[in-house]
Amino acid sequence: MQREHYKTHWHRYNLKRKLAELPPVTIEEFEKRLIQQKTEDAAAQEDQSLYCKACRKVFKSKNAHDNHLDSRKHKDNLQQYLAQSNGTIDASSSSTNAMEAEIEVSVKSTRAATRAAIAAAAETEVDVEMIEDGDSDEWEDVEFENPIENNDCIFCPHHSEDLLENIKHMSIVHSFFIPDAEFCVDVEGLLTYLAEKVCRDFICLWCNERGRTFYSADAVRNHMTEKGHCKMLHEGGALAEYVDFYDYSSSYPDHEDGMDVDAELDTPTALDGDDYQLVLPSGNVIGHRSLLRYYKQRINPNRAVVVKKSTQKLHKVLAQYRSLGWTSTQQEAAARNARDMHVMKRQHAKLMEQVGVKANKLQKHYRPQVNF
């Protein structure tokens, strides 16, 4: 029971209060504070934005909304809105009616225009029609002229005579190129799609929604020109984005004219191999990891085999030495002298290295030469 108590949030809360030198609280007080905190968190998470139906604008704070109500543009839009919904407004109407109209037009919303439309749907049909018009004006796609259809450059306002001249301009001026152009089956469609990304969606072709956000075509064009991003991201997961414009079937080893590249391949019933390797249907061999040290060797199969030198000449020289009186004792002395000479050479090389280090005055730190 005591262990279970140590695991409760109430115990941990009192433990933190003890570290802060505060008195502990009872379980009832802790539950009351917990409910109060949850209520405050829910109120903080609630969106307090306000939506003006007359001007079709969203304001995230009450101060911005109050400043908007005092503007001349809002008052003009308010008169037009009330004139269309309830008929022509009399200029000599009281200030109380104007204030009620402003309160009615400004609606508290948690999701901007969408929830404002839902809240106003219970009113008259005229109000519903006006809100639907406002929603359609706010969310409907802006009319967009594709630069490729007009033979315009994607990255600048330059105009070309035809598509080929346009591609040539983008290649020379902006260093833009189409990757794997020999496998691209729809060049115009690919360029049209790229133009939509840049000029309509304001997305950099190289950053591809991973970098900063742009709000105009000029901004994304300047970014791509300054950063050198006038190129396609054609690697990794981005390849699936352009799959409709490419056809790599001609690069398949078993490609044949008229074959269906989307047809499913028959799964082989069995694979050849033994305990240390597995032969795939493509001919590739998968080896066991215990033989990794041998697979890492890069042996040239075309290299010539070095034939061991014959020792016949050496035997003839030794036989001639023996005929001149050469003995095994002299051979041992010569070997001993050779070892001594080798040791002396190593000592001399070590000494010369030490002298060179001292002469060069090699130091482990750097001191700037400023005293001159």
From TrEMBL:
GO terms for molecular function: nucleic acid binding; zinc ion binding. One of its GO terms (cellular component) is cytoplasm. SMART domains: ZnF_C2H2, ZnF_U1. Keywords: Cytoplasm, Metal-binding, Repeat, Ribosome biogenesis, Zinc, Zinc-finger. Gene3D superfamilies: Classic Zinc Finger. One of its GO terms (biological process) is ribosomal large subunit biogenesis. Its main location: cytoplasm. It is found in: Cytoplasm. Coiled coil: none annotated. InterPro entries: Matrin/U1-like-C_Znf_C2H2 (IPR003604), ZN622/Rei1/Reh1_Znf-C2H2 (IPR041661), Znf622/Rei1/Reh1 (IPR040025), Znf_C2H2_jaz (IPR022755), Znf_C2H2_sf (IPR036236), Znf_C2H2_type (IPR013087). Residues 52-74 form the C2H2-type domain. PANTHER family: CYTOPLASMIC 60S SUBUNIT BIOGENESIS FACTOR ZNF622 (PTHR13182:SF8), ZINC FINGER PROTEIN 622 (PTHR13182). Belongs to the REI1 family. This is C2H2-type domain-containing protein. The lineage of its organism: Eukaryota, Metazoa, Ecdysozoa, Arthropoda, Hexapoda.
